[in-house]
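Late entry, evening session. Most of the bench is empty. Finally got around to the prediction I had been postponing all week. Sequence below, unchanged from the version circulated by S.P.
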Amino acid sequence: MAEAIGWINDAVSFFQFLESLIPGSQAAYSTVRVEAGLNGNGLSGADGTISMIRIYDNNQNLIGQTDGGYVSSGGYSDFSIEQSGNEQAVFAQIYSSNDAVCVSYASTSWTDGSQYAWVGDWGYLCGLPCAPRCTWIDGDDTNGLYAQSLLIDWTSFGQSNQNTDPNSFCGYPALRSYTSSGGEVVKRDKTPKLDSRLVISSAASHNATELCLSETSRGPDLVSMAEGVFCDMATKEVLPLCDQGTKHDCFHVDSRTKLLSNETTHAKSYTKVLQWK
């Protein structure tokens, strides 16, 4: 049974993974399992196609790669990667095709029998496109899904890591993510820069109030159309959306402006607006 580090209520926690969630070990092969989120309850299109998986040794030298395949809704696929030696596959990079996948968990067995796992909740904390319990990757950046690949250091999420700061798991070496052009999405910053993007989401699963109440959350501002709420990540301020009945102390979506009670306005300047369906 493997253990993986996740986070609950802004605290680092250990999850025990049943043997059934870990792929079997093989001589001369490392195996990576990828599970997709289950469609329903506000999540759709979570199933998709992995284009490729690469594995690296502890010095980040490439030691093997394999083509990917389709991962069904709520299901998983195992990908076996042949190695020329018995190096430990400490890092795995999981690439999406143009058919996006929402990864709920990934697990691995190495040639020596070592087992590790990673849970998709980390995407939320690390500012990646996410839904409850899974992290999106997509090869062609449609619908604001700008992360093409996840690069996971399995050992960072193992039981031997005693770090209790959730933010330390975002960036090198624990979790990195890259766009289709090779740009790094998750950076290792002790004091993260404010995100200048706005996400407008119609998904019921994207809760702006919950996002703002989280002490460790970071990433772009969020408009939850289903909730009717705006979260300002710079100030962690929650405002209702302006409508016919609410004209002050609210956020006007079309003009990207806060309308305050003293009749002043505060226009937000965004470098990019992402529409999530």
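Two things to note before I forget:
The first strand starts at residue 2 and ends at 8.
The helical segments are 122-125, 208-213.
Will write this up properly tomorrow.
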